[in-house]
Fold this sequence. Notes:
The protein is α+β, with helices and mostly antiparallel strands. It contains three helices and five strands; from the N terminus they run H-H-E-E-H-E-E-E. The model has no long low-confidence stretch (mean pLDDT about 95).
Amino acid sequence: MFDFYQYVETFNSGDDKLMLDRFWVDDLEVWSARRGKSRLLASGKESFLKFLTFAHDGVREIIRVQVLLQDDHHMFAEIDMDFRAAKDRPDYPFGHLKPGGFITVKMFCLY
């Protein structure tokens, strides 16, 4: 069975390329749903790496698992995603982050 906690540890290390190479397939799709609308964030590893490079520019992102439900073919995770800014990010997707600023976003993830 997939070791989700190993994935979280690798993600939280901040090495996006290692995380992608170790845990994601080449033809991945990453979707986001907010306010009743879904949109494709990335298609393929290079696209997802580009998205993560933007998202992590001056921002440290940490996954905190709240609930994990898993069987041989499905995973559902409720996670709190913490974002701490080291620099000014007025363009940040979850709102303007200032140096030292911190937000937590609740996420529900299907894998």
